[in-house]
Design brief:
By secondary structure, the protein is an all-beta fold. It is built from no helices and five strands.
């Protein structure tokens, strides 16, 4: 598998450059999470980094690569939004009509 040396900005990995495995599209994952084990009875922590473009070239505007930015509030959770899903997100009980 291919990997790419990707820099980190902010948080505990600020300034580090780590080899990150690339996916089938040739991009690193959108989120990188670093688990930190617990010490002295404290709960374990999870540091989250979001993938951001590293910059663009002046002349053609081609992207120069990726960088991971620290997100102190953690990874944002999303639900899948299918066109046929109701806004409430709950499933209908069996045997009920769709327009009730």
């Amino acid at each position: 598998m291919r990997s790419e040396n990707t820099p980190f900005r902010g948080g505990p990995l600020d300034g580090h450059v780590l080899p990150i495995l690339l996916g089938p599209t040739g991009h690193p994952p959108k989120w990188y999470e670093v688990p930190v084990p617990a010490h002295d009875g404290r709960p374990p922590m999870l540091h989250a980094y979001r993938r951001e473009p590293a910059g663009h070239t002046k002349r053609l505007g081609i992207q120069r690569g990726w960088v991971y930015e620290y997100v102190p509030e953690g990874r944002e959770r999303r639900e899948l939004k299918w066109p046929w899903s109701k806004p409430g997100g709950g499933a209908r009980p069996t045997g009920t009509a769709p327009n009730e």
